[in-house]
User: Fold these one by one.
Assistant:
Number 1:
Amino acid sequence: MNQLIWFQRDLRLNDHTPIHRALSQNEPTLFAYFHDPQQAQGEANQVWLAASLSKLQTALQAKNADLLVAEGEFSQAFERVLTTYNVKNVLYHFELGEPYQTIQQQALAVCQRLKVRLTPFDQAWLPPESVLTQQGNPYGVYTPFSKKVFSMLDGVPKPEGEANWSNFQPVTLENHDRQLPSRLKAIANTDWAKPLISQWKVGEQAAINQATHFLTTHIQHYPERRDFPAINGTSQLSIHLHFGEISSTRLLESCRQAQANQPGHSEAIQSFIRQLIWREFSRYLLFFNPGLINQAYQSKFNQIDWPEPDDQVVAWQRGLTGVPIIDAGMRQLWHTGWMHNRVRMLVGSWLTKNLNQHWLVGQAWFENTLLDADIANNVMGWQWVAGCGVDAAPYFRLFNPVVQSEKFDPQGHYIRQWLPELAPLPNQLIHAPWDAAGKIKQQFPTLAANYPLHDPNLKQVRLDHQQRVQALKMMT
Ligand code: FAD
């Protein structure tokens, strides 16, 4: 009897419960990833996926194992692998949201038909049903949820570390199953993908190194630096966490150890754990509300007739709105596949409130362009900025991008990094260049020819938005 470890967003060998369970059985074990191009996440995500699978393949080979990567329609590929390799038990970490829910349903149907055991494991810190209000209901607001989670941290299972490979029995793969499949390879080899991925270190070891480096070198400054996009003040662990190259339980354990070893930095580490709890919260919300992937948590938002995406959306995507902090964020996203959290909030507010677009328009763009595009975090982030989600940022609140830019990028370093065409502008013009459009056209004609200098009329936009808020209040 053979067992199969089915990888999804858990591309690591350590702290991996299915691997621990399988290796304790002393049965021949094979390892597989199924790539269904029709049910895959966005393109940037697939580029990281290809690189991460190569790293995983190398790590498995060092254990005398191998990684099977099957491409094609999921049910067919899954069935073929189960039958070809005489698999009787599949162990995996289940994932929330689409495309994973559909894929997992398909896996269940195949396993039931073939009479194969399918054993799911969770990756959450705590089972969602164990984190409830006094009335026994799921939480719908972050602060009480996080307080509850903080009070339960001792109950989070300890990471399991490395499994015992000493009695591992490999299964020999057919040659064609050992290659990175063609469509995944093709996307990884595109002209845009190579420079994108070359800026990052991919894989489990890179994730562990990054976490260690951040927790030993940067953590003490995290609370005061985390909102400034020009500073390297956050962990940049989101991509590793999304792909499961490091487990969130291991990261939590490392934080708690760091708190014990560096008591002077305990508060700073606590504020980092608070961000990790946002991640747990987004999964928790999706667990109890699977419809959130395309329906607003506050149901009246689902009745709004949103305008069709237009040229302004294209300008937003290209970083050509004319509002420098917004455009810098969108260019950072395009060039690196990542964007600073403060700027994600600003570009999200601009799209949903200034341009009055459906939050799903932004969610879809992020899904395709972010390397860390994560179903739960992305949906929660967009519903939060649009003001239709579970938490604070109400619909009537709209960020003033100029005030935010002056506050969080006072010297304009971030703007100049991503909008080099604005580099010659002095600090007092860089946040709102339209205020001096005439002067800029005279002094910097090349800049004026390449960057929009029209007045976005922030006052009028705010009034328009307030009218929409009034209309929304009338809705039941
Ligand atoms: P750090 O500040 O170092 O935080 C550590 C970890 O905590 C992050 O890696 C992340 O896993 C988690 N975290 C931090 N902030 C949040 C948050 N607000 N919500 C949920 N988890 C959080 N994050 C994603 O991982 N994938 C997404 O697709 C995504 N889409 C977003 C869309 C919008 C509109 C917004 C406003 C936020 C989105 N976020 C998303 C959350 C957040 O912006 C990123 O997690 C963060 O910028 C990643 O950088 P970091 O790892 O340096 O964060």
Number 2:
Amino acid sequence: PKLVYDFAEGNKDMKQLLGGKGANLAEMTNLGLPVPPGFTITADACRAYLESGTVPADLADEIDKHVALLQEKMGKKLGQADDPLLVSVRSGAAVSMPGMMETVLNVGLNDDSVNGLAHQSGNPRFAWDAYRRLIQMFGKTVLGMDGDVFEDAIEAAKQAKGTQNDLDLDADDLKAVVETFKQAVHEHTGREFPQDPRTQMDLAIEAVFGSWNSDRAILYRRQERIAADLGTAVNICSMVFGNLGMDSGTGVAFTRDPSTGHPGVYGDYLQNAQGEDVVAGIRNTVPLADLEQIDKTSYDELMAIMATLEGHYRDLCDIEFTVERGKLWMLQTRVGKRTAAAAFRIATSLIDEGVIDADEALGRVKGAQLAQLMFPRFDADAATDLITKAIGASPGAASGKIVFTSDAAVEAAERGEKVILVRRETNPDDLHGMIAAQGVLTSRGGKTSHAAVVARGMGKTCVCGAEELDVNVAQGTITVHGTVLEAGEVISIDGTTGEVFRGEVPVVPSPVVQYFEGTLAPEAGDELVASVHRLITHADEVRRLGVRTNADTGEDAARARRFGAQGIGLCRTEHMFLGERRESVERLILADTDEERDAALAELEPLQRADFLELLGAMDGLPVTIRLIDPPLHEFLPSMEELAVKVAVARERGEDPGRDATLLAAVQRLHEQNPMLGLRGVRLGLVIPGLFAMQVRAIASAAKELGAKGKDPRPEIMIPLVGAAQELHIARDEVERVLAEVDPGRVIPIGTMIELPRAAVTADQIAEAADFFSFGTNDLTQMTWGFSRDDVESSFFSKYLEKGIFAVSPFESIDREGVGALVRTGVDRGRATKPDLKLGVCGEHGGDPDSIHFFHEAGLDYVSCSPFRIPVARLEAGRAAL
Ligand code: ADP
Ligand code: MG
Ligand code: MG
């Protein structure tokens, strides 16, 4: 296959092959925008390299051809002593991984051509600066040297010169720096810095390929659930220079504000600078709007290009550009990352601007983003101890102890502590600390700094550019207006307003939650709430899946209903056996005679009826699926160890252990090696006479009572852990008998959970006795994989994730191929018996976006999830139907 594409040969839809950067450079080239010429080496070539450890045989030839073409186009050659062609070697995967992989600039410079560049540009300082950058980037990226070696040398040169500003280093200073760098390379590798431009290029290409598997890239992919085997493309792009003087510069821009979504001019610009300088926070940037004063021609052209790009991509774009002596060059664009709030606002703005329709807008917002908007905010009344106000770069309200290093953040998080990572600026090596921290606070950099971009991508709270803070990492202090804060002290940061508070600030519900609660009207003037309202309303219109809630109490049911739940998909009845009711349960378990057992059940029944009255009342007119008792009974008894100690102590003292001894005997009798595979679910109902009957009587009589009051109760009775149709037939007979006794006129559907592989496989038989199925995907996952959910997630799952056995825990997101296949089997076989069998899912997966899409495809009727996930499920069910 073709391994190299000229920029003019690609387009934006070729991301898989050319990477996002390459595909978009091609798109811009074909739009006639000023892109420095170049070519892209495909991700296929990278994959081949990663698999075999060597570059594909044909690659060198193809590169030769494209280099020749490029030299022709540019009218200069690589390594040409009097006027060298320089290129950048840039990584760029199909999925954007900002700053995670490597790029080397100024490839092609050497001891000869640096003089040619100096002469040709009339600017020796620039030429030596470019050369030292090449050696620095090459040393770090290609030769694996420690970046500090280079930074320390520059720092030393600045100190010798008595300056803080790298611009004060002149050509001779930089020449000396280059000398130091070259020596460092020699010491480190035992060889000279390679002088042959093509060797530089080839080594840089290999290094970029290899950077796909750098630690931080791997960590980032795991965090963002990006497949491990995509590989990266490599872009070879002829260099343009923003560091030729004050008439040059480099910048980043967004076509709209990525944190709020508002239209306008957003970005940062830095005069006389190259590449990474803007995001690295080395010098302070100016707002992009200032470029109008600095260089109106370039500014106007940039504005026009930004409008073109937005129109073309029909979405927010982010951009990297460089001005070389008054000439604008475009170096990168992509549909930009944005905050959750911006995603919603932009989507509805674009509908209003006539750019996209409501379906497309819905496709552009995600459940995970909506979930973020439902996080609590700081309580403005309680937030009094304001330390400083900086740039709100990634929204959220985070409190935690101050830590100054990423390692400290990880250690503290492992101890279960909440921390805020405080840095002057972050760099790609801080990724693990950013993941571990509740939030990130930096004293330098703007909305486009590394910290801001990465935090937004992860949905992590971030405040940046807090210049009033004097962050001294070495001493472990922050000094602000004379106050000193130390590591370990708690601060709170507001990623929306940019405020930083001392101490922990209490939180209040977000406006979006208030909207779902019904206390904030969509037309009350909050733009974000209005956007959420429009898109979720559209989701409700288009979705086929119903959304129910898992709720055990009237309070949860009422909240879920306000959030849009169309009923209860799972009411667990076991909590109704806890608390003060424990004693009755104990009597039930300890009963020796039928009379004792019936007496205990008789105590429980009115209490359960009261619970059902509340629940059915809260969900009046909507279905309420009540699952009969499921867990093993010993869960309701004190622990065996505890009792054994009590009894032993009593005996030691010569006292009578009394009831404790009886309980201990019962617990020992009920003890099981694998309780989750033991006496639970339908098995309890079949073995303990009267237990299910009591629950059914409570349900039926509660419904009857509400019905008599003119209400519309709609209970559905669900029998757990059925593996064989016979179990369900027997249980159903008993349930029907009780229903006929209590309220013969009322039809209450009787169904079962499908949560054992055997149930899924024999669903055709089980359906004979079931009015509905609800897939219990927690147990189904547990039983299918043979994973004990309570044990494996904390023991070896991280290893499994590392080894790529799965990209996400199968308890979090449904395993489509395995557990999902059983769900499909259950659906097909169940409906083969009863075409109108009602099918739902309860369990954690009901609120997980990816799983919801799967359940839609599998043809279920509804998902059921916890009350707070209801809005997410509504939105995702809508997106699944697009
Ligand atoms: P990243 O993916 O980390 O943004 P890039 O490949 O975009 O890495 O490059 C890093 C920096 O170098 C960016 O600021 C980019 O604009 C700049 N850069 C890349 N190629 C060139 C070039 N040919 N001329 C000038 N600057 C470049
Ligand atoms: Mg870039
Ligand atoms: Mg279960």
